[in-house]
Amino acid sequence: MNLILHITQRNQWENAQQSQIYCGDTLESEGFIHCSTPQQVVEVANSLFKHQQGLVLLCIDSDKVSAEIRYEGSQEDKLFPHIYGTLNLNAVIQVLNFQPKEDGTFAFPQEIVSLMS
Q1: What is the dihedral of CA 105, 117, 85, 56, to 10 degrees?
Q2: Distances (CA, A) of 44 to 8, 58, 80
Q3: CATH number of the domain at 3-98, please?
Q4: What is the pTM of this model?
Q5: Residue ranges per domain, the chain?
Q6: Residue 24 — φ and ψ, nearest 5°?
């Protein structure tokens, strides 16, 4: 299993559970961006979500994703997984509260470490 991690607003996730459809923000690309390493999660959270409350971190089993996944580079030549299409909810194996520290920055949740090994 390759774990894909995705940061989203709790209300967007709750809406997805009710409608059974989740398609993340495009972030100016055709597919929506996810992370595959702890470093990517922290970098994305601190650059795009600093000080934001009400976030969750979706832990996604890439083997269960029915849409196309492409690993594409960013400006720094780091590969990020992009899911092209809607995310089937049964691919989400865990949902964690993802809240900033007092200074507004994020740290990687230690609960995920066991899933990554």
Answers
A1: -30
A2: 11, 14, 11
A3: 3.20.170.20
A4: 0.86
A5: 3-98
A6: -70, 170
